[in-house]
Structures are given as C-alpha cells and as structure tokens.
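ok so for the tutorial part 2 we go from a plain amino acid sequence to predicted structure tokens. step 1 is just haveing the sequence, like this:
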Amino acid sequence: MICRFLVVAGLILVGATAIAQQNVDWPVYGGSSANTHYSALKQINRRNVKQLRVAWSFDTGDAFVGSEMQCNPLIVDGVMYIVSPKGDVLALNAANGTPIWRFSPLNGQRAGKLRLRGLSYWSDGKDKRIFSSVRQHLYALDANTGKPIESFGDHGRIDMREDLGREKKDMVALSSPGIVYRDLLIIGSSVSEALPSPPGDIRAYDVRTGALRWSFHTIPHPGELGQDSWSPDSWQKSGAANNWTGMALDEQRGLLFVPTGSPAYDFYGADRPGDNLFADTLLALDANTGKRVWHFQTVKHDLWDRDLPAPPNLITLRRKGKKINAVAQITKSGFVFVFDRTNGNPLFPIEYRDVPASDLAGESAASTQPFPLLPEPFARQQLTENDLTQRTPEAHDAALETFKRLRHGAFVPPSLQGSLLFPGFDGGGEWGGAAFDPQTQFLFVNANEMANILKMRATTSGAVSGKTLYLQECSGCHGADGKGSPPEFPSLEHISEQRSVAEIYSLLFTGSGRMPSFARLGQEGVGAIIEYISSGRDAGVSDNGRATRLPYINEGYAKFLDADGYPAIAPPWGTLNAIDLSTGKIAWKIPLGEYPELAAQGLKNTGSENYGGPIVTAGGLLFIAATSYDKKFRAFDKDTGELLWEAELPAAGNATPATYSIKGKQYVVIAAGGGKSAAPSGGSVVVFALPD
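step 2 — the prediction. this is what the tokens look like for a chain of 692 residues:
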C-alpha cells in the first residue's frame, strides 16, 4: 500500500507539475469575453504576496506631457501585446519584456492625447491577428510580425466614419477594444458629445476581410423599435448613444451585452424629445445578427452625461440552491443593475421615482427615473451641509457658500442657477469596471467620490464670428473665459505661447482625447477661433450652416473644489467596494488612494480620484492601481479588504492590470501611464512576480 500510495502520489505530482507548467493567458480585454476580471491563478496568494518584486518593466519611450496609457495588456502564447501613449502597438516577450515587433500607425508622430484601453485578438489556429485603432482607423495586424494585413479593408485598415449612413465628416474613434465572436469583430465607438455628432451604431465586421456584416442602430431608424422616443429626424441629425466602454459576450448563447452612453448634446435635449432609446441602455443583442433580444434603459432622456461607463460582468449567482446566469452593470450614479442574462428580468427590485422637471425653455425632462433598491449603491447618493469639507475652517466656509446657492438632489435637471451633480461627471463607477469573484459572489468596484457643478448659460444669436464660435463650440469645456477646468480641460489663456498656430490648427482639425474634430467648421471657422483665443480679435465668419446652434450650453465641467484644489466635500474621495451579490449588501468598503502631501501632514486614507479597474484571483487577492496621485499598485485580501502589499509605480497606474503564467510562473502586469489630474505622464508596463 505504501508503494501504491507513492506511485499515486507521484502521478498526482507529475500531473500537478504538468498543469503548473502550462501557460495561462489573458487573451481578452478584461480577462475573458465575460469581462469578469477574474483569474484562477493562485501561485501568488495571501501568504506570499508580500514577496512580490518587479520581474521586468518596459518603457515604450513615447510618453509626452499630459499623455495617458490606459491599456489592459493582452497575453497570448507567451507574448504580451500593448498599446502606447502615441498609439503604437508593441509585442513583447511576456517572460522578460524583450521587444518582438512594433507597429507605429502615426510613424511616431503625436496626434494629441489618445485614450486607448486595449486591443483585440483573433485566431483560427493558423492565422493570428491583433486589432488596434488610432483616430478613425481600425487596423488588422499580423500577430507574428505586426504588419498590416493587406486583405483586410483598405490595405489593412478600415475607416470607422463609414457605414453610418451619414457624410463622414465627424470624428469616430475607438477608445475601448472591440470584442471577437467567431469570425466577427464587434465594435462600438467614441464620438463627440456635442452636436453635430455621429450616431453610435454597434457594428460587426468580418475579421478576415473587414466587410461590414451587421449594424445595430442605437438611434433607431424609421420603423425600428424606439424610434418614437426621439424626434422624427433624430436618426439623421442626433448623435452619440454610443458604446465607448467595451462589451461582454456570452459565447455559449451567442449573446452580446452592450452598454451605451448619453445622446448628444449631453445637457440639453429639446431637439430630441422623448426617452431616447437606446441611449444609456444595457442592450442584449444576438451576436450573429445584431438583432435586439432585450434591453433596459438606466437613464431616460439623459441630461447629465450619465453614460454606462464600463462593460458589464457576466456572472453566475446562486439563489436557493439554483444557479442563475446573470449580468451586472455598474453606473456612474453608483448603482448596480443585475438582470437574468437570458431574458432581462431584474434580480433585485427596481423602483421608478418621480424626478424634477426642467425650467429651461423647450426642455422636457423625463418625469420618472429607475432606482434599484438593491444592490446597495457603492457611492454616496446625496450631499448635505454636514458632508462638506472640514479640512480647514476657510475651506468649509467657502464650500458652504457655494453649496447654498446650488440645487441638489438626484436627477435635478441642468439650469441657469446651477446644481451640484453627485456622484460627478466621472462617477461613481468609471471605465475600469468591476471584477467578480465566483467563490464569494462579491462584485468589486472602485468609485470616485467627486462632486461637479453643472450650470447652463444662454447662448447668443446673430452673426457668426470667432468669439461666437468659441462660445458655442469650445466654452462648454474650456469656459467662457478660456480658463478651463484643469487638468482635464486645460486653460487656453496662454495657448499661443505653448503651441504654434500650425499645431493648434492640427489639434482642432483632428481632435484630442475628449475633444472632437472641428474640421466641419472649415479653415475659416477654425482660423477665427484660433485668432480669438490667441489674440482676442473677433473676426467675422461666413457660417454656411456649419456652426452648432443651441439655446443653452454647459458652462464647463467644474469640479466642486476648495481654494487649495482639494475636493470640497468630506472624505472619502475615492473608495474600493465589495458588494455581496447574493444579498445585495455592501460586504466591505475602504478608502482607495491618498494625496501624498496631505498624508505627510497626517491626513491619510482620504481616498482619491481613481481610473482603471481591479482584477481578482483564486489566490484570495484583489489587485488594483487606479489612484491618480499616489502612484501605488496594491493587493488586498478579497474577503476583508485588508491591504496586503503595495508598490510605487513610475507613474500612476490609471489602467486595469492583468495576470498570466508562463511555464508555471505567475506574473501580474500594470500599465503606468499617469497624466491625469496634472500628474506626471509615463509610458511603461511594470510586471511583478515572486522571487525564483
């Protein structure tokens, strides 16, 4: 019996060794098509995570002031694929960081700030392709060489401005990667949030040829479901309602889950009366055909830029001994909506509540909005005077003065008086999304706790000039006075000292980050804007119908800050949350991040703004960077939220990590790009592992 036991044990050990030596990939944005951010790897665990060290790092070498690097790396067959701040795609040896190839679609030139969160991978076993995007172009690259595949589209790329049923004059980009289903690459888009804006059609392309296979109109065409929730001509003139966040896919059922954003213009919708399906909607589509299976609209007639900010999580819940295939969708509002994946039935109660009417001329806000009663919100839902900052007496008094002159409450419509939007424009939840642990049934999500001031102003009518074009097209972000809301929306006061006229022209014609292209205004219109912001001279312009005319626009994306630039509300200013989806209750909540200078003064664990999401592993760990100021990468006990390990990165890790193994060795990688909130920019990936 002893010998037999040893033989059996030997077989078990051999089998375990064989399994351990296999590579475990991270082949899809978010880890899998289900977007659970979960890995079964457990070599790195609660007991040994304190031993994590940098295994290797790689600097792309193309970061610039204000650039960001938000990519969630892909790891396939021992190769890591990343996208750099300038949009270059790189293949690296995932075990040591040795470069394999580099594709530079812009030939190393800077084309403004890019936000590229990842790549897509497809293979039929022989042909292996990487799909990437920069500006309006979607590229198909040979995964072995990085060279464009000539047979795909137009010599290796397609123009995403096409196939939308409109003249291709407005920018269409792809910030989050598409999702692969069989021989289809299914994509959303990033478009302008102002008018004019392209529609946010969901499109499926043949992975081999680049031919369009199907489209779903998020702004319904005549005869399509939901068309009566818009004006009759919205399908030709309205824009956005787009998926900029990415998607999730139930491969077994062929069900595609698509969260969409707000319609354009974000804050005034008299030209789009009605609920505006399928904006701010979780869509379940047949991945083969693009046909709608079911939907749920989380915000009706959005006037607050309440985009669904992240891909949903496809999860399996246990209830009364039964397994339920579900989908969970986080929101900027701090809500989580949970549905039966197959039919859209809510798994927790949802209540429609009366909300305030608008007092802006022509506007008709929705009379009710949906509120999930469970799960519990992962961000605070209201602010009172007791919730204002106490950092200093002066800061509190100033915050109180501002607070008293604004409107407050959920779904208070934009107004000339102004209101306090909380959670703010960036949530609550953001694009990093949530992670789901099948063992605990916990959904992990990081949240911003930042308030914004949403205030409208009436626009001027009359002759078009550089000033009127600026006020209509640019002041919503940069302010009527040009001072902006730095760092997200920079000041233009000294723009002529920072950039040449040629550089400003290029920027306005191509767009940058959240700023759309203004090519539709023509050289005369763009030139008049440049003249106005550079010298103050107000040159007349022949309109030719190219300027946007709205009676009201947002005064800017102002944060509710104190005089020293810190949030004017009491901490926490950012949190990490574990939500038990078996009960809908918060299991634990902790502050995430801090301000190093405040921590040095004794004000620690305040939390901070954070962008990028978590991953969770079978080793009992939750990994997350995300924090904008302290540059930390952290590992927490997933059951309790206890901090087990942290390391400082070369720049803030505003991205979602990935984990993988090569020949039995587990690695964890994070992109360190920084660039948010005036933080230094970087362009590197940092890979951690246990010592050999």
